[in-house]
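tool_log.txt
---
The assistant was asked to compare two proteins side by side. It first ran the structure predictor on the initial sequence, then on the second. Raw inputs and outputs are pasted verbatim so the downstream comparison step can read them without reformatting.
(1)
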Amino acid sequence: MPSKQNIPAKSQEHRKRKKAERKNLTDTFVRNSKAGALRIDVKDEHCRGFTLRISTNGTKSFAYMGRDFAGKTRTVTIGRYPDVSVKEAREAAFEIRRGLKDPKQAYAATTPSNCSSEITVKQLVEECEPILCGRGKKIWAPRGKKSDRSTARMVIECVFHELLGRPAISLTSEEVTKVVHAYVPKSGKATANGQASRALSYLRTVFNWASGRGKEFKKLGACRAERLDLADLYEIADPAELDPKITGKRERLLSPKEMQRVLPHLILGDLGEGGLLDVDLRPIAMRFILLTLSRRSEVEVLTWEQIDLETRTWTREVKAKEEIKTVTHPLSDAAVALIVTLPGFRNRRPGKLVFPNRAGGVLGNWDRACDVIKAQSETKDWHRHDLRRSAATILSKFGVSEAIVDTLLSHNNAFSSGNTSAAASAYILLSTQMNGLPDPLRDAVNLLAAILQKLENREIG
């Protein structure tokens, strides 16, 4: 029999973990437990198989370690402490133990697609996608009938393609950091353009769901049934915030000459590729952004029930800073005329998108559409969000007050600065609700539409 000195180091470490004593696992005990030179496993004396695991860096997590119906040893990760309380983890351990004793449940829980130690990043994203979509997160909805992938999944797969085949539990924050900060978009641009930042944000959501982290996923039932002990991606800095070439606010505006060149191309485009639509709605959607001073994200999810043609208004949810609020803004005559010419107007239904892609899903590939319009109009270096900024600047140049412009932009509090009365917002809201009163917001959007028409006709500029 080999002496202890001849036993490999890993085997010695394995034996030391197996000799862990049983304790009454309580929040006080777990909170006060310290890390050691080797990983520590502490068994619960009340629930067989329920185990506290303390890594050498002090990370504490819960797992179920026991045998299934066939006598095979299984280790199922439950989640990290304190994201998962002792009570929640013990309840989960009871359920896991009960499931492993059932041949059907045990088989389903340990097949390669579900086994904690085997599930890949790609499989985890695919598992999480329909759940987030079902909770109303439209960025996780399929992009159309010809593609079952959501925008969020596509962005993750684009940026993290080299990590998709890796087991999710083996991935470290350092490895993710290395990939996200080394990412260079297909355009070849060396600076962060938002793609890496969005991919990191979407992957964080997946990892939080699978781990049961954060307020949204912390409770049992809101997260993955079998929680995984995954890296905390909130440790990773946003690459866009660290980009030294991104300084201050973007101030790009389209000049009158550029606007004259661009406007004739913001119309229904011809795709000629079949599908539900034979037209490209991205160019005309950009005209709608220009007419309404709205954000691209708001136009992407615009549905027909948000538009009231009788009052000529658009009611939607907007995000200003950390606040989500509902706003109702008037539509100019030009914006209404644009809407009624859309291919989907005749068969409009609640829930259907006003500006869908040709398969009926959310519009995408905006950069490609912008590039085509730039080439056609012989302009360059502008972004679709610059249309919104340019529209706001036009109104300001023609004497519309800062408060009115900020209201149309749906900023957090349009009346918190400037020389405006505290009651101004109430009067403006009242005027939009009562016939016969002046409506400065409607006047402003109609003025904007008239100016854009004159620019397109080359009557000014």
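(2)
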Amino acid sequence: MHSLRIPALCLLLLAGSAAHASEAIVKKARCVACHTVDQKRVGPAYQEVAAKYKGDTKAAARLFDKVRTGGAGVWGEVPMLPHPADKISDDDLKAAIAWILALH
């Protein structure tokens, strides 16, 4: 019984570390200037984004493109500026999007 607890605990710790790391990514990339987890700011709350795209298997790729190129009209009139790779790496952006989509 104890042998099963240790791997499960390790998985929980790793999952928590990944979530913390992804949250740190959005802070470092300054996404928090316009977004929060649970309240609309300039842009939608991350939880709203997660709810909108829940079950959409293409959401991560679409959001990746949207963040890279910017856009307007989906969440209101205020446009989201593009976020190029020199501001947030592809790997960090993918991790951030995965974290956001997991908030549903």
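---
observation on (2): Residues 8-17 have pLDDT under 50 and may be disordered. The CA atoms of residues 12 and 18 lie 10 Å apart.
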